[in-house]
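Hey all, quick one. A colleague (J.T.) asked me to put the zinc ion job into the tracker so the inputs and the structure tokens live in one place instead of scattered across chat threads. No bug as far as I know, just bookkeeping. Sequence used:
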Amino acid sequence: MKTKPSDSQNQLSLLEAEGVDANAASSTQGITKTLQDPKQNSSGQGESTGRVRRTIELRRSGPFMELDGQKIPIELNRSRRRTVGMTLLEGRIKVTAPNWVPLAEIANILDYKSRWLTNRLKEWQLRQANKLEPEARWAHGATIQFLGQACSLSLRANLDEVIWDAKTATIFVPAAGAPNHEQVRDRVHGFMQAQAKEILKERLDILAERSGRSYSKFSLTHARTRWGSCTQEGHIRLNWRLVQFSLQVIDYVVAHELAHLKAMDHSRSFWDEVATILPDYKAGQQGLKGVTFESVS
Ligand SMILES: [Zn+2]
């Protein structure tokens, strides 16, 4: 059974605004926000005490929300609709809210949806990268995803192996002899495949052991057709390109294939098995929605 990339129809649905019931979301507790309404309050009255970690700021100079370490602009539109809706379009968060919903409430809702928004952002960034010509995609300063982190490629003449620096979100690539884009791509892919061999095997072992399931064999796949597969004999194959995604996404695919050890279909009992292996699997599943093999590097 296969974990397939979503089709293009799925991708379209992700661009639609997702409605959130303002009243239901207002019950989410524990999020403290200090906000300035660009219309009502420009005096600084609502400034944070400095003790509150703010990920969302709505202010005259331009509201933004921090997602995955990036400042994403927010566009707020008031309307007569009854619920708060939001979407991530062209790298911007667009929020439509009823006039009566206070800004603090909108901030709460955005915070509540931050994981969903982060997934939409990543999906958009993957599609943007895909629009680039290979020469621009595999050049110094280009962005590439590794373990769900948007990393910039840095070509260095004095290196002999690819190095990933998570702190600065940089992938350093040996560039002695002025490699062309294909050579840069091959070096990055070589690094990722070596990482995949270890990381994917490790996640598989961790989830298998934690859930008491056992597989017979593991191997990496290279085909741009599926994320993973599992045979009747318990041979699990995982696509090396999965290392471009977060551990949450990787764990979902691993749990999905492990669940096929029990059910070879996608029946109700199969999904129950996925949930037993990885209770929070939906978060990772969401990260693959709308992602096609054309959009991964
Ligand atoms: Zn499956």
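Adding what we noticed when we looked at it: The longest strand covers residues 70-79. Residues 5-54 have pLDDT under 50 and may be disordered.
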